[in-house]
Amino acid sequence: MKALRALRIATAIPPKSHRALLLNPIFSPRCYSAQPEQDDSSHNPTLSDTENAPDSVFDSSQFDIPTMDSTTKTEPDYGWDKKYRSKADQLIFGKDSEGVKYKFMEEEEERRRRVLAKSLLEAALETADDDEEDGERTVKEEDQKSLAVGIIGAPNAGKSALTNYMVGTKVAAVSRKTNTTTHEVLGIMTKGHTQICFFDTPGLMLKKKGFPHKDMKARVQSAWSSVELYDVLIVIFDVHRHLARPDSRVVGLIKRMGASPHPKQKRILCMNKVDLVENKKDLLTVAEQFKDLPGYERYFMISGLKGAGVKDLSKYLTEQAFKRPWDEDPYTMNEEMMKNISLEVVRERLLDHVHQEIPYGIEHRLVDWKEFRNGSLRIEQHFITNKPSQRKILVGKNGSKIGRIGVEANEELRSIFKKTVHLILQVRLK
Ligand SMILES: Nc1nc2c(ncn2[C@@H]2O[C@H](COP(=O)(O)OP(=O)(O)OP(=O)(O)O)[C@@H](O)[C@H]2O)c(=O)[nH]1
């Protein structure tokens, strides 16, 4: 939450150099139109107030938004009609607009983008607990420590909730590099010199005694062998459910994993959802039931959802880390984070350009998110308005307002994500 708050603050950096943006051809009043210029002639005025009116859609592919390659150019290339440029100059700077320092404004714009991108990343990587020491921003490879932690348990045991709590909103890199079909990254915690990767172990079907089903054997064989690769294995179970209705497959799994110490892997048993157990004495009864299993080095009673006992678990795991380079770049954003950032950036532009009161009544949705093989991103977002009058304001004359929001947001997203972004914004009526 804290990170999200920071994210809002970060995106609220006032766009000091909008004037620089306005001088760019793609931001000229004429070109702000969400309706591509070449389609003007075919524009059907009877559609203008309907949901699918073409001017209610901004599609960045129809605008000359600079590509990644064009960021290196030193001189501004205004390649647009001089008439419109001088009109814009006069509008913004008055008659004596000659000699405006474009370069200065470009630098200012670049500076603002860098500040925004840095703030977003810092907010996203912020530690969840207030009292935790802040993570090092750069750690030399020789100082890095890492740990691979597998989490195994029945569906609904609380694997994801526990990981989310430990990793917080700063879920860092969940790259395809680490994901495989047999183990999937649940989250990555990078704190100080230590990076801990949490892996899920999907596909591990158990039969009554805690062994894989025979018919699934081939499929799960590699999953089981990958379990061996983790430095630490967390066996997690829902202690509340266990007290009410013990599942023989879960008991089988706990016993199997704790049967004998593993030569290379530390195993710990986590009794999860302790917050749901009213009589805490019952927890001791369960602990008693599993206490003689030599394979477990430690036992933890936790609530992955509420956080009880999680700090001790995190501390224990951090202490187990090996001097080993990190597997993942802690500065990489995951998809969820990128989606939130895309919404924040567009919303910020909306607040900039539309009267303050209107945006609060407007529903703003991410409707499509696609990452293509070439690394580019297609993002489609819709604004759903309650009244035709709201829609009209948001669309602007010939789509000028939504176009302007779209162009600016597209630029900003491209700069933050460092990839080509194809942004589509649509204004609809409820
Ligand atoms: N009260 C309480 N609920 C929890 C706790 N941990 C998880 N839950 C809830 O239990 C449900 C399952 O949690 P998940 O974290 O999705 O479980 P999972 O093991 O990842 O489930 P699968 O993805 O099906 O394997 C969710 O509704 C959680 O909110 C906890 O400590 N206390």
From TrEMBL:
Residues 200-203 are annotated as: G3. One of its GO terms (molecular function) is rRNA binding. Residues 43-71 have a biased composition (Polar residues). Keywords: GTP-binding, Nucleotide-binding, RNA-binding. Residues 354-430 form the KH type-2 domain. CDD domains: Era, KH-II_Era. It holds the Pfam family MMR_HSR1. NCBIfam families: era, small_GTP. This is GTP-binding protein ERG. It comes from Cucumis melo var. makuwa.
